Amino acid sequence: MATQRPFELNGSPLRLPSPVVELQDHRLDLNGIRLLLKRDDLIHPEVPGNKWRKLKFNVEEALVQGHEQLLTFGGAYSNHLRATAAAGRHFGLNTVGVVRGEEHLPLNESLSYAASMGMRLVYLDRTTYRHKTDPEMVEQLINQLGPSYVLPEGGSNGLAARGCAELVDEIAEDFDVICCASGTGCTLAGIAARLQPHQQAIGFSVLKGGDFLCDEVRRFQRDGFGAETSNWSVDTGFHFGGYARRTPELDSFIADFAQRHGVALDWVYEAKMLYGIFARIESGEFAPGSVIVAVLC
After folding, report:
1. Which residue of 89, 172, 246, 278 has the smallest Cβ count within 10 Å?
2. What pLDDT score was predicted for residue 9?
3. What backbone phi and psi angles, to 5 degrees, belong to 69?
């Protein structure tokens, strides 16, 4: 969005490109593995993780189409809702967040922030919310809430995958494998679409029963790039019980990682990915001398 002013909220601009830092860890030494962290979690405090990358081309498209309002969906603790609210505020777009479940007052921190950015919050009971993507439901919401550019829950679509692909361009050092946590498959789809022939991508599913993500990755690649790639895989072995589930083993890994490296991992996504990476390193699944990038988002 070159024609727009630089993104800045509360005096804090986007940090792009996001930093790349190398971990020093004796567990990598045995096979001469190098592990780099792509710190997308540091892009912006109000647009956390990869949310800006997913929003970038969608907001651009909304503006090109002449929309004045973004309408999107999420749970009560959705980072996507707060990020959409922040982006809408910056670019002069009204925002509506359709929230799963009943209203609870006072608002939690995430919804309170979204409301402070001007987002209108509306609520759907969980049964109705399951039908949020049905064309009839979308039409009903637009009739009720006004003409809108509709973003899917989590912001994941073909345009979002194109935004995620840009993080690969920011990594100056050559690498062999790039890893990300996968909840929808969108980030993995974008990353894989941008890789060189010798590079591979791995998505670590944070969901129990995450095999369906393979179809989603292919769908996002078709929608975003017009073609599928075969240079990626989904690892479903490190979900630790399912989405937003954790175990003492995972908590111990998080605490140990913070002590070793001074990085507090998000336990819903990042920790599961990095646990999986170290487990695969220990079992010898990466070739000796491999350079691995782990995306924190």
Report:
1. 172
2. 66
3. -145, 135
Q: Supply 32's token pair.
A: 């001469």
Crossing angle (nearest 10°) for helices 270-282 and 248-261: 90
pTM for this predicted structure: 0.93
Q: Is 268 left (phi over 0), alpha (psi -120 to 50) or beta?
A: alpha
- CA atoms of 264 and 103, how far apart (whole Å): 31
What percent of the chain is predicted at pLDDT more than 70? 97
Phi/psi at 83 (5° precision): -65, -40
Query: What CA–CA distances, in Å, run from 104 to 109, 141, 255?
Result: 12, 21, 32
pLDDT range class, residue 8, cuts 50, 70, 90: confident
Question: Interhelix angle for 51-64 vs 186-193, to 10°?
Answer: 80
CATH number (3.40.50.300, 3.40.50.1100, 3.40.50.720, 2.60.40.1930) of 8-48+156-296 reads: 3.40.50.1100
Instruction: Give the CATH number of domain 68-147.
Output: 3.40.50.1100
Q: Which two tokens stand for residue 247?
A: 């175990």
Question: Parallel, antiparallel, or unpaired: how do β-strands 20-22 and 34-39 relate?
Answer: antiparallel
pLDDT of residue 5: 56
Confidence at 11, pLDDT banded by 50, 70, 90: confident
Judge whether residue 60 has pLDDT over 90. yes
Q: How far is CA 103 from CA 20, 123, 124, 241, 265, in A?
A: 40, 6, 9, 28, 30
For β-strands 149-150 and 69-74, DSSP reports them as: parallel
The encoded tokens of residue 172 equal: 């100056």
144, two tokens: 């009720």
Residue 17: asked if its preceding bond is cis (omega within 30°), the reply is yes
Helix H or strand E segment including 8: strand 8-9
Q: Which of 3, 5, 89 is nearest to 46 (CA)?
A: 89
